[in-house]
Amino acid sequence: MTCGPKNFDWIVPDKLFGLNMVEACREHDKLYARPGVLTKEQIDKKFYNTNKSNAKNWLQRLVAWIYYKAVCSFIGKRVYDNNR
User: 16-45: buried (b, 16+ CB within 10 Å) or exposed (e) per residue?
Assistant: First the structure.
């Protein structure tokens, strides 16, 4: 699995309601690991925009928004800070 912290695949699936987020998650993780390229906010917004553009219906857009809110939360900040 790609999305979410290790051992959390059961909470953070890579694909949900037909929305495949693998590539967006990989890019998000790569950017988190490269300090100074983009801000956390820019990286998180890019993640959301990628998932939203891949969404084919309202349910997939909702999934994209929920994942975006998760990476913007304290959880995402902790992962980002750990990569610094």
Answer: beebebeebbeebbebbeeeeeeebeebbe
Phi, psi (rounded to 5 degrees) for 74: -60, -25
- Sorted by where each begins, the domain ranges of the chain are 38-84
Whether the Cβ atoms of residue 80 and residue 32 lie closer than 8 Å to each other: yes
Helix (H) or strand (E) holding 20: strand 19-20
**pLDDT tens for the chain, residues 1 to 84:** 577 666 656 567 778 899 999 999 889 888 888 878 899 999 999 999 999 999 999 999 999 999 999 889 877 777 777 766
Model confidence pTM above 0.90: no
